[in-house]
Amino acid sequence: MVAYGCSMAKAAAALVLAAVMLPGALAAGGRSIHRVEASDYNIEQVPQGASISMEGFGRLTGPGMPQLPVGRFTFLLPPGARAVWAGVTGAPGQVMAGSWSFPSAHPPVPLLPPELLSEELDRLHRLWRRARQHHLSAGDVLPESPAWLAASGTLGPYSYATVAFCPFSYNPATGELVFHPRADVAIDYTLPAPGTPEERRVERIMSLERYADQARDVFRNWPEASAMYRGLTSDGGFREAYDYVIITTEELSDAVTSSGFVAWKTGLGLSVRMVLLSDPEIADQPGADLAEQVRNFLREHYLDWGIEYVLLVGDYETVPMRICYPNPDYHVYDPSDPGLVAPGTPTDCYYSDLSYPDSVSWDADGDGYPGEFGDDQPDFMPEVYVGRIPVDDPSRITYALDKTVAFEGDDGSWKTNVLHPTSILFFENQYHGGGPFIDGATAIDSIETGLMGGCDIDHMSEQFGVVKSPFPWPPISETAVSNHWSSGQYGVVNWSGHGWTNGAGRTVWAWDDGDGVPESGELQSIVFIDVGSTELEDDYPSVVFAISCDVGFPEPSPWGNCGIDLLTEPGWGASVGVLSSARPAAVSGDWKEDPGGAEQICYDFNRHLIALGEPVGMATHMGKYDATSVYGWDFYYEYMNFYNYNLYGDPALELEGFPTGVEEGTGPAAAPPVLSAASPNPFPGRTSMRLSLSEPGHVEAAVYDASGRMVARIAEGLYPAGEHVLSWDGCGPGGRLASGVYFAGVSVEGRRLAGKLVLLPR
Questions:
Q1: pLDDT-based confidence at 10, cuts 50/70/90?
Q2: Chain segment 491-547, per-residue pLDDT in tens
């Protein structure tokens, strides 16, 4: 083995804003200049050629591309800017001595059933070979430029551009390798015209604070460029702020209000607003269909309302999931066939990206097929975090929401317990296809060792058949999974295996005819979780990530819907939040050497959830963004994976127990305020609650309707220590209110309390 090393300055960038006016269509815009630099790197000689690793960089992954490092650098632009081009203005190069050879990037490996897998793998390998042969015969220098525009979007109010930088240029025909230690990159951007909706949208910003910490971490030029956003926040007088929005129908709204969910979230300090599809906020929005109207509602209000979390309540048609088409040449959507390859894919990430209108993002080419790789320009950095209760059955909706409340209210140590059932996904040269050996335990083991220190972990691997897992864990089986999950207490469950709409299973190489190749007839599919046979219970529901196909299939399936039932089936619902794939998922051919795919999404989801302690919705969307921005494939399978993984459950769900509010200090902490249940309740005329304060404090108390609108203020001012009575007579500013469900929200020096009120007709 021969190794070369080079110590470079860590990746950095300096902003130079040039006050230039661009010609033609870019007259209303400008240009910013940035420097990007390589990190430390190491070159090793491996059997397939040379291998370059660079700190903080992924690798080129397009068909036929050499495995060269590529990093992504995100820069803050002026308010309202949209990047339209990026190019290199200078990139000094150093020719590396010798003639070099690099292996091509690995194609993705879809987790397809046997009858589809062989043909699809053969197609992908042919595509990669043809692309490599083209580059060899054409004498192309790869990549064409050391840097290019990878993405343009917004993070809330902040406009940004992401530049991809490959510090090496390689000619596969001559073997010449050139190292670019740095590059100066120009980014051209447009600005919204005066008086347009996009300009007015920037002016409606409620607060920059929610995004500031993330922006500070993401934007390379934050110290010098953030000054452009100072003073941007508009006070605009008093505005109601809703950081949690529930979107549903009038028919399903009672299922939400009959649970304790809204009161609980209000008590946690969230301001909740329910918006019905029939409300003018949505119904009056422009849009080609209801999905676009919902997205336009969120685009209009997420900044001035301060929306952070969005919960969609209803199935994939009632509150529509957006059907996206990652393969621009394959416009097939069949809700009865979960086995389609790169099909029309139902997704909720459409609602999390609110950067630009559909016409310049999700359907940029205007062909009516949104989300196409290369043709459309979705921005995967989320503005809001989206989850869904994916059913129309009111009893299931209430069950799932109440289960969420119970989970967050339980601060038991059992939430640090983890269950990891894993299986072998593919055997080497399976079906004589020349494919790699892929063990689902590999990524799970890295999650355990890298992220889960202090957790109590039960794990399983494949220990049956001709070839077993190299991870000598207890053997996986349906009985083992059922016994552990139904009798144990797990806060997190990550599994890997082949999936179907009704569950997941193992592929076992049961016997060999002597040729050493796993073939049809020698492989057996054995379930390890199935909605019809696996015994589970819901006393200790888990946050679940499934590295599997189709587990999150949202359409009705005659075989069952595992992901939906795990969240919403009373008694069997062993999950409080499910992150799973709506269609076939894809994994990396060698996750250790070339991270990516569903395994990388699982890793980054757990990193955000466990290591960073973020809510489930934030871990979902930021985990997907991190996985694809660093280790994404330059191919439509990346889009497919991103769309596939949807969160079923509350996006604001916290893994740890509800905090007590008692802080460490030098003396004894004051007892927290206590709000009694209302009495009488239900009530036709007047009801009262008792508020106990252990010390003086400023109190604000109000009553909200089921959609989150404040209808009455019942207390405000400085209250002494002791017990106080808060009363409400069922009236608002306009007089007597309609009978129904209401919520009392009480704030005491930043602590939030809540109670449910049921007003009866007189």
A1: very low
A2: 999 999 999 999 999 999 999 999 999 998 999 999 999 999 999 999 999 999 999
User: Exposed (0-12), middle (13-18) or buried (19+): which is 95, by Cβ within 10 Å?
Assistant: exposed
Contact 711, 704 (CB under 8 A): yes
Q: Is 397 exposed, middle or buried (0-12, 13-18, 19+ CB in 10 A)?
A: buried
The reply to whether 374 falls in a domain is: no
Domain count, the chain: 3
Query: Is the same domain home to 643 and 678?
Result: no
Range of the domain at 552: 412-649
Same domain, 569 and 702: no
CA 616 – CA 578 distance, rounded (Å): 9
Tokens of 134: 């083209």
**Is 337 part of a structural domain of the chain?**
no
Read off the CATH number of the domain in which 641 is found. 3.40.50.1460
Q: Is 448 inside any structural domain?
A: yes
| 98: CATH | 2.60.40.3800
**Contacts (Cβ under 8 Å, ≥6 apart) of 572:** 531, 536, 537, 538, 565, 566
Q: Report which of 246, 239, 302, 240 is spatially closest to residue 272, judged by C-alpha positions.
A: 246
Half-sphere exposure of 99 (CA within 13 A, CB side): 4
Comparing CA positions, the residue from 78, 72, 58, 89 lying closest to residue 13 is: 72
